[in-house]
Amino acid sequence: MSIKRTPMTLRGAEALRIELKRLKSEDRPNVIKAIAEARSHGDLSENAEYHAAREQQGFIEGRIKEIEAKLSTAEIIDPSTLPANGKVLFGTTVELEDQDGGAKVVYQIVGEDEADIRQGRLSVTSPIARALVGKSEGDVVDVAAPGGVHSYEIVTVRL
């Protein structure tokens, strides 16, 4: 059985490492203290503070496991090491022009965990990214979206 590698940029991997460090060094010890404090108040069956702290502990431990799993299967890709051939690849930044309205948008193609449309980071698995990958500057791509098919011209591709 082969392990499915998850593409991730250097920035995305570093953000996960920082979150993992915070969870282990700050959040986990704080919730353990909160549980101990709540236990000292007596009857646990009706102790809302205790139940809330235990729920928070479960969330923290689950998130730690999730991040560790993602980092263990991550294939960290540095876009600066990719060939600058004008093609849209993972990690590249693409400027698109909407063929219908002329509006321009800029997206970086990133891993699923890094995607944030408000910050211009588009998941490599999104319909737009899948349509763009492998295309070059000047190409026009059609993207099937919930609101219908949109056509975009690739204006620039940069690392």
Structural features, described:
The model has no long low-confidence stretch (mean pLDDT 88). This protein has helices at 10-39, 48-73, 127-132, and strands spanning 6-9, 74-77, 93-98, 104-110, 121-123, 140-145, 148-158. The chain folds into two domains: 6-77, Orthogonal Bundle (Helix Hairpins), CATH 1.10.287.180; 81-158, Transcription elongation factor, GreA/GreB, C-terminal domain (Chitinase A, domain 3, Roll), CATH 3.10.50. The chain has 159 residues and is α/β, with parallel strands linked by helices. The protein is elongated and about 70 Å long. Strands 5-4-3-7-6 form a five-stranded mixed beta sheet. The longest helix is centred in the N-terminal third of the chain and has 30 residues, at 10-39. A hairpin with a 2-residue loop joins strand 6 (140-145) and strand 7. It is built from three helices and seven strands.
